[in-house]
Amino acid sequence: MDTVETLALTLGAGWAAGLNLYAAVFMLGYMGATGNVDLPPGLEILSDPMVMTAAGIMYCVEFFADKTPGVDTGWDAIHTFIRIPAGAMLAAGAVSGLGVSEAAEFAAFLVGGTMAASSHLTKTGSRILINTSPEPVTNWTASVAEDVAVIGGLWAALHYPIAFLVLLGVFLLLVIWLLPKIWRALKRLLHRIRTFFSGRKNASPPAGGSRKDILKSLYHDAGGKPKE
Q1: Alpha helix (H) ranges present in 131-160?
Q2: Are 150 and 19 spatial neighbours (Cβ–Cβ below 8 Å)?
Q3: Burial of residue 45 (number of CB atoms within 10 Å: 0-12, 13-18, 19+)
Q4: Largest distance between two CA atoms of the chain
Q5: What is the tens place of the pLDDT at every residue in 95-135?
Q6: Measured at the alpha carbon of residue 139, what is the angle toward residues 137 and 144, in degrees to the nearest 5?
Q7: How far apart are CA 210 and CA 94, in angstroms?
Q8: How far apart are CA 48 and CA 92, in angstroms?
Q9: Where is this region: Disordered (predicted)?
Q10: Are the CB atoms for 84 and 70 separated by under 8 Å?
């Protein structure tokens, strides 16, 4: 693999792991096992039948969990601690055994983890907002689109690395623009949830009345009989 191909695989593996780790592992392993691509030495283990079987089973589990509103949010929360480290390891594996220095491997580890974090956080935040919609079609559509993006993205990274790097650059610009908006929307959503469960109402006390009159009114509303 030349420098551009290695760079595309390094960034692509980290990015794909943040969206769907098991699809990424299975896709890379399948392409390596069938001879479609020559995986770098650090990723050849993905072609092992045991690894592919485990990734395939977990992908089937995630396929249904990721398309169930509410369940997908819990699944994503748990996988915050799985996808990001795994993305870093896949990126490091993409350069391992190619004669690069340990510093280069560690740099790939950091970059891969960052790519996985960016795609994972964007996915998780957008899914929480999508789940506020009462109909499930949007959730299913988003999940299928993510699966297609992972499979198609890794295929492009291995066969058309320059085109993939351009599209990945567009994705990163979109993330930079989108994440602050998602964060603000999530803050508003959490505020509404806290307000709902606290039972508070957006009502102000009656205008023009003394403190004593206001307290008497509140006591009366609670079912008491204030003393005159």
Answers
A1: 137-159
A2: yes
A3: middle
A4: 91
A5: 998 889 999 999 999 999 999 999 999 999 888 888 877 67
A6: 95
A7: 73
A8: 18
A9: 201-228
A10: no
